[in-house]
Amino acid sequence: MFASAAAAPGSLARVNLEFAEAVLNGLTQKGQKTIPPSCLYDAVGSALFDVITLLPEYGVTRAEASLLSHASEEIVRASSQPSRIIELGSGTGSKTRHILSAAGRHHPVRYLPIDISPAALDSCARALGGLQNVAIEPIAATYLEGLHEAMSSRQPGEPILLLFLGSTIGNFTRTDAAEFLKRIWRRMRPGDFLLLGADLVKSRERLISAYDDPIGVTASFNLNLLARINRELEGHFDVAQFAHEARYDERCSRIEMHLRSRVSQEVRIDALGISVKFAEGETIWTESSHKFRAEEISSIGHRSGFASVRQWVHGGWGFAETLFRKSAATG
Ligand code: AVJ
Which of 35, 48, 55, 60 is the best mutation target for the ligand 1 pocket, counting ligand atoms within 8 Å of the beta carbon and taking the most? Predict the structure, then answer.
C-alpha cells in the first residue's frame, strides 16, 4: 500500500509513516475522501486545539473542567481511592489536575498519561509534575498499546482508574465506540474503574458555532491538515482553494468537519507519488464528533460489559462524566 513512498528513500525516515499512510489511503479510496482526526494533531494542530478550548463558543472543555473540579473528591471516593490513574489521550493533561490532586490527598498516586504526541506528553508532565504525592510516567503510544503497557506494570491488588475524557469517544461512531470500550474492558480487571467524558446533544445553532467559530480558529485547525501535508509530505495544496465546513447530521447527532474544494483542481503530493483530483464542492471528511444523550452513554458502557456507577452532568453546556466499573460478576 505504501510502496509509492519507496521512490523517495531519502525522505522516508523523516516521514511520519502513520500520517503518510492515512493520507495515502484516505485520498485515493473510492467515494468520499477521508483523513482520520488523529492527523489534525501535529504541533501546530495541537496548539490550535488548545486555542479552541478557550473560545467562548466551544463549551466542551470548560464544562468538563468545571465538572471535574467540583466532583473530583466524589469521583475519587466512588472509584475506591485509586493509586494508579491511567489516561487515554491525555493531551496536556490540564483537566486531570483536579482528580490527581484529590487522589494524592489520600495516598501516593502513579499517573500514566498515554498520548501519541510526545510534545503533548512533555507539557503534560511539566504541567502536572509539581503535584504532591503524584508520580508521572508518560507513555507515548496509541491508546490500546499504551493501555497494555500501563496495565502490565500494575501491582497485584492495585486499584485502577482509567480516564477517557474530553469527548474523544465522540470521534467514534456509536458502534465503534462500544467496540472500543469492549477492547478496553478486556484489558481491565474486575474492580477497575473507567471515567468517560462525553459531550451531550444540544441545539444545532450552538453546535455549529462551536465547530465553526466566528474568528476562524476551528477553520485554521481543520485547514492546517492541508498545510501539514504540504510540510511533511511535499504536498502542493493551495490552502486558500479549500474551505472549512462544519455540518450537523441530526439523525446521527454528530458534527462533521469537512474541507471543501472551492474549485475543480488536481493536487500533487510528491512524497506519496500521487496526484489527487477534486471536483468543485467535493470534500475531505476530517472529523466526526458524535453527541450523546446522557442515558445513551450508560447503555454504550453496558453493551461493552461495564456497570455504571454514577454520572455527573453539566447542565449549562450539556456534558456528562460517567463512572463505570468492571464488575466481578461479568468479569
Ligand atoms: C478533541 C475530539 C473532543 O470533537 O470536540 C474541536 C476536537 N474538533 N473542534 C471535539 C475538535 C473541532 C474535539 N475532540
Answer: 60
Q: pLDDT tens across 215-225, in order?
A: 999 999 999 99
Beta strands at 254-261 and 283-290: parallel, antiparallel or unpaired: antiparallel
State CA 154 to chain mean position distance: 25
**129-155: average pLDDT:** 93
Question: Can you state the angle between helices 60-78 and 97-104, rounded to 10 degrees?
Answer: 20
| Range name among 5-19, 65-79, 270-284, 302-316 with the lowest pLDDT average | 5-19
Cα separations in angstroms, 178 against 116, 272, 298, 306: 22, 34, 11, 11
Distance CA(205)–CA(242), nearest Å, equals 23
46 lines ligand 1 (CB under 6 A): no
Tens of pLDDT, residue by residue over 207-258, are 999 999 999 999 999 999 999 999 999 999 999 999 999 999 999 999 999 9
- How far is it, in rounded angstroms, from Cα 230 to Cα 78? 48
Closest-CA residue to 276 (of 230, 310, 221, 209): 230
Cα angle 206, 212, 214; round to 5: 95
- Ligand 1: residue of 40, 49, 247, 257 to mutate (most ligand atoms within 8 A of CB) is 49
Angle between helices 217-233 and 17-28 (to 10 degrees): 110
State if residue 55 touches ligand 1 by the CB under 6 angstroms criterion: no
Cα–Cα dist 318/313, whole Å: 7
Phi and psi at 79, nearest 5°, equal -105, 30
Ligand 1 centroid to Cα of residue 85, in Å, is 23
For residue 216, what are the contacts with CB-CB under 8 A and spacing of at least 6? 244
